[in-house]
Specification:
By secondary structure, the chain is an alpha/beta fold. The protein contains twelve helices and ten strands. Helix content is 45%, strand content 11%. The protein starts with 11 loop residues before the first strand and ends in a 14-residue tail after the last helix. The structure holds Fe4 H S5 and zinc ion (2 copies).
């Protein structure tokens, strides 16, 4: 496969875009996708201070890298959860420190145990009824919100990619969790006093593209996932969506981005969502979506059948 832009050997083939790119053009293309998301969803403006939630993984470190390359004053926040397995928390903190040193980027660390007396697994053990991840999510949200507000940052940016968001959307759709569906967005506004604005600039990019970006760009990240993420239901939904993507390139992208579009246009879950304007067919009088002849009558007129209107079905 050759680069669509210059003909050099491609490092990645993105079937959903019918685009293969060499290393140089791929490293150019990824930030343009991020910039497009930032602008389209009015995430933040040039010059506004952005706090990036970094875990030491490929997505968040790449996001930080991309925002710096785009010229945004992006600082990092790393929360040390105190996960002891495989020295996960300490190794991931080292990756963050290393990245910050290489890029001369400002960051801060909040160590949950040092700050509040217990690690996340210890708190979860004490609260037996709750899973480690739910305790962790709660604590992380609280700390990030606080640091964003108190540090005077315009927004908190997280490294959720399109696969992450599509998996959550899939899960919410399967359960018709309408409240979550209404709120799942690339921008969560500061809708309440004391609530920080949150944004997800990577939502146009697939997970494999983020992995390729980190690799090609030489970003050293922690390969291991958090040990508690094993068996998470979102992983299962990601696999299902990947199967779909395999036979139908672009399925993940359209599933998620068209959901956002439909909701922005008010076509989602409202009582008017399924309503279309109908006209009487000029020949038979039966209802049709386009003025003039209905699709049935056109069929017998030996004209071109598919004019884009549809038969009215009850
Ligand atoms: S860090 Fe925390 Fe995740 Fe680990 S304990 Fe669960 S929620 S899996 S994003
Ligand atoms: Zn090229
Ligand atoms: Zn509180």
């Amino acid at each position: 496969m050759k680069c669509t832009k210059c003909g050099e050997p491609a490092v990645i083939n993105m079937r959903q875009h019918r685009l293969g790119l060499c290393a140089e053009h791929f490293l150019e293309w990824v930030p343009t996708q991020v910039e497009r998301a930032i602008e389209k969803y009015a995430m933040f403006a040039p010059g506004e201070r952005v706090l990036v939630a970094v875990s030491g993984g490929k997505d968040s470190l790449s996001l930080w890298d991309i925002l710096l390359r785009l010229g945004y004053p992006a600082e990092g926040i790393y929360i040390n959860l105190g996960v002891p397995q495989g020295d996960y928390s300490n190794v991931s903190q080292q990756k963050v420190e290393q990245f910050a040193a290489q890029h001369g980027a400002a960051f801060r660390v909040v160590n949950v145990q040092a700050e509040y007396g217990q690690t996340i697994p210890q708190v979860a053990h004490r609260k037996r009824g709750r899973s480690t991840c739910s305790v962790c999510g709660l604590i992380k949200r609280h700390i990030m919100n606080q640091v964003t507000r108190e540090g005077g940052y315009a927004v908190l940016a997280t490294g959720h990619n399109l696969d992450d968001e599509a998996a959550v959307l899939f899960q919410n759709t399967l359960h018709w969790a309408t409240g979550y569906l209404a709120r799942q967005a690339p921008v969560l506004p500061a809708s309440h006093v004391g609530l920080a604005r949150k944004v997800k600039p990577l939502i146009r990019l697939y997970e494999r593209e983020m992995a390729a970006y980190a690799l090609v760009r030489g970003i050293d990240y922690i390969y291991e996932e958090c040990p508690y993420s094993r068996g998470a239901t979102t992983l299962f939904y990601k696999q299902l969506l990947d199967q779909l993507e395999e036979t139908s390139p672009g399925a993940k992208q359209s599933f998620y981005l068209e959901f956002l579009q439909a909701r922005a246009e008010g076509r989602l879950l409202s009582s008017e969502a399924g309503e279309v304007e109908l006209h009487g067919c000029s020949h038979c009088g039966q209802p049709t979506t386009a003025p003039g002849l209905c699709a049935f009558c056109r069929l017998w007129q030996q004209e071109e059948v598919n004019h884009g209107d549809t038969e009215y079905a009850e």
